[in-house]
Amino acid sequence: AHFTLRCAADNPAQQSAVESVVGVPLPVEPLRAVTAGDAIIRWMSPDEWLISVPEARAFALEEGFRTHMPGHYALVNVSGGLTVYRLSGPHAIDVLKRSVPVDLHHSQFPVGKVVSTVFAKAGATLRRVDDQTFELVVRRSFADYIWLWIQDASREFGLSIDV
Questions:
Q1: What is the rounded distance in angstroms from the CA atom of residue 58 to the CA atom of residue 23?
Q2: Most buried residue among 7, 9, 42, 137 by CB atoms closer than 10 A?
Q3: Residue 123: enclosing H or E segment and its boundaries?
Q4: pTM (2 decimals)?
Q5: Distance CA 50, CA 134 (A)
């Protein structure tokens, strides 16, 4: 399940409520993502975050925000509009270099960094999960296009699919 959260990053009560409800502290440093267990919060802008949790937690998360979040905020369930791809392996960076205009060198794109970018002419959110693993969040309407692009860009590297 995916949620867009808009709130005040400098509000300690809201930061505390987010951590209490999601189980992950709100990343206030630009271009960072934080994870704990099965929850991820990605920084998208100074007052916007993309939260991902397992679908089974979606209702409880929404209820938790209604109950515990003080002040003005917006939480929108965007689950139906997003698809997540995970690219991993020794050639994940090679595939991404063909697809995104982002410097993927470890010094510029360390583990935990997240950016909004273009992936093969489609808007995407890219996060580095570990040294050889990247997460790509794209609009569902581009999912087929992106999947075909990934297949083509990774053909010479021996694409394998883990479901």
A1: 13
A2: 42
A3: strand 122-130
A4: 0.92
A5: 16
